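Inputs:
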Amino acid sequence: MSLVVLALPLLGAGVVALVAARWRSPLTLTVLVLTLLSGALMAQGVGSGGARVVTLAAVGLPAAVVVEDGLSAALVLVSSGLALATALFGVLHRDAGAGPPAAYWPLSLALLAGLHGLFLAGDLLTAYLWLEVVAVAGAALVAWRGDGARMAAATRYFYAELVASVTFLAGTALVWSATGTVVITDLAGQVGDSTGGRLGLALLTTGLLLKVPVVPLHFWLPAAHTLAPSAVSPLLSGLVVKSAFVILLRTWVGGVPEVGQPTLALLLGVLGAVAVLWGGLTALRVERAKVLVAYSTVSQLGLLLLAVPLAVAGSGEAWLGAAFHAIAHALPKAALLMAVALLAHTMGGGTVDRLTGAAARRPVAAFAAGLAALSLVGLPPTGGFVAKWYLVVASLTTGQWWWAATIVAGSFLTAAYLARLLQRFFRGAGRTVAGESEPAERGRADVVALGLAAAGLLLGLYPNALLGLLDVGAPLGVMARG
Amino acid sequence: MTRALLILGGVGLLLGVIALFGAPGSRGRLRGVLALATGALLVVLLAAPDRAQAALTVALSGATLAGLYVVAQLFERAAARKTGGDLRLDSDPLRRA
């Protein structure tokens, strides 16, 4: 089934690029529905039959490995669902009177194929190839039909991705030279004291940190995520930034935890903590709502890195917390970005001040933003709470309480900057509406945002199915231990 | 010899990054991409554990890097059209918006 979830969007992208423009959106939606169904079947298969590793051997090349485990199945399922929701949003919402350009549909399918490739990749060389697909498709989606500012943001994003890819490739080559393999799980115990192997790990990790990105390598993210079209930002902030992290997690926790223990893992944790605090503090100060959400992404990505020193120390809860957070963050973050786009469209501008009283004009979108905020802060009973709970438990059980303190501080900061935004939405009467030219479509796009925000809540109300799935094939099984 | 070439590859990578983000113009950035790609290919070629795998892996990586170079050219052309040719990677695009 893993090959189906890869092939469907990849072939779909090629076909959609060739058909007439008016057929592109319906065909894309059809492909996305089929991919979602395939993802559900894959998750069901992994849940009932356990994890599976498929090795594809090609003469003259290192073996390509596809990992069908709980993490990849859950991410494939959620990314398919989120891509479908974002495409629906693109159909229903019109950016300043124009829908997504015709190129959006094949590019978004190519991006989804690249993401699925990364979620399923069990070796570094395959991961490199899929990283390229994601980089090109992502940057092109930001750039397409953009003005000078958006083009500048897209070019900076593309070059950052290019440097990261090349660094990752060079690192992969050095690791391959030192160990004789690029299969992540086969690296265990192979790197040892080899200078080349360690240098390779350092290079490929740097490449991945630039792609995630982590402070201070995040310079490209705020502009790219802010200036991207409203049907692209949810994909970038919800999914794309997680794909490099999955490779990072598989490498350091499933591959070479002994190399990271304790100094390198600690360094990754410190970078994560800096991101949590610095991203949150910056989000408090910015004027534009979408920039605020972009810095929120920088902050929330830091939480993922906090899990590395905890998981390397042997905490299964850290693996579960990080994997759960990757998903629990994606849904409400996409919902918040959609809601902000709708409210800014209605209010005729996207600064925090301009959005004063926006809830009176678009109550459903404002409510969706509020619901999403609950999950991003990590309040019970949302999915964000479950993820942070596991990370805090991991911190305390491994005796590394300082990460728990960072998580709590990050949650307070998140509450502060999102409260600043929400209090504007719900304060005063709505301003004069500018650009409200499509009232018939307005409500349906709002419902998509609300649905994603509600999904973030449901993850917290019924977390066991996802937790059970994420534990299948995890290097540090928790649920199996009881 | 191998170590010296590996160091050369590393220097290529470093110079590529510096040229990419330090160069004021499109031509300088594209040269940076070339330096990066060459450095990476040199590392891949010398690091592959056996010759047969090295040849195919370099071919595969070379093809993807060539693809990235072409995409970089497309980005540069579009950026030159939209920004009037004054794109700098060290300035924040949000200031333009």
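The longest helix of chain A spans residues 148-179. Flag for discussion at group meeting.
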